[in-house]
Amino acid sequence: MTESQPDAAPDPVRGDRPGLDHAAFEDPDYREAVVDLLGAIAYGELSAFERLAEDARLAPDLVDKVEMSRMAAAEFGHLVALQERLAELGADPFAAMQPFRRAIDDFHEHTAPSDWYEGLIKAYVGDGLAADFYREIAVYLDAGTRQLVDDSLADAGHSAFVVDRVRAAIAQDARLGGRLALWGRRLMGEALTQGQRVAGERDAMTALLAGGIDRPGLDLAAIGRMFTRLTERHAARMAELGLDA
User: C-alpha distances in angstroms, 125 versus 160, 175, 206?
Assistant: First the structure.
């Protein structure tokens, strides 16, 4: 009987994982674009963790404080998975996140909530817009990476908590609804600006969106349709909260 041979070690550059397109990772430009995208999302998750943990201090009671802290913990879990995947690709996770710090930090600086309810809207609407944008980009990636992006951007059911709290609050104070609607519109504008900065920050990601000879990309019409979809999803979230978009 011959001795069985151990399985070959995974090739990090080729991305030997079920669902990944190995041939795609043989293209260094494609691999660089994936590293950029995962780096941007990873830093976004780190920032969301920090922000939600900070916003938990604004919670009116212990129940809400714990729920917001639970949301922060979920974001950190997503960060860990993204860092692991970046390491599998042979990339330094921290170096991959670094180019996107300024754009994402600027977004959070410009949209710092002034109270508990603005923090809830930002967690639901602002993070939802960012997730939609990254999912739009992930459409052009291999199935395995696309699944990782989807998993990293999942809200794990936390949206129901935000919707419940916001709807209950505006039912008691109609004026609060008007203020939060304006806040949601501001978040929309800031999030779109941030998305454009992140996409244009790195040549590889820009090239990914532009496509190539054997890959589909975004022309002006497709870009217009993408922003229409983002706007429609934003309006749907606002409606779910009981707010005008």
Answer: 13, 19, 25
